[in-house]
Amino acid sequence: MNKNTTKVVIGNLKMNGSLSFYDEYLKLLTSKLSDINNINVGLCIPYPYLAQAQSILNGSNISWGAQNIAKFENGPHTGEVSAAMLNEFGVQYVIVGHSERST
What is the pLDDT of residues 66-84, one digit of tens each? Predict the structure, then answer.
């Protein structure tokens, strides 16, 4: 393996948290992980907290992502979230095909 290979580590926060939790947690992570090298860190956050993650993590070395994405661009798909919607929050990662979402 090449010693210069960048590794990617993604955390999935599942259905956990609150506004106060994410405020404290994301600020703590940005301070603790501010000087890591050769590792791309991403956090897949529940949809309601994506704007908060974008606000806190923007400019840090931690990326944020979503926990699912619709296969549709738009339309009458209640409860789904499209790629265009996620893009507005600067999402860099998405968990696709998670077993908990399978039908």
Answer: 999 999 999 999 999 999 9
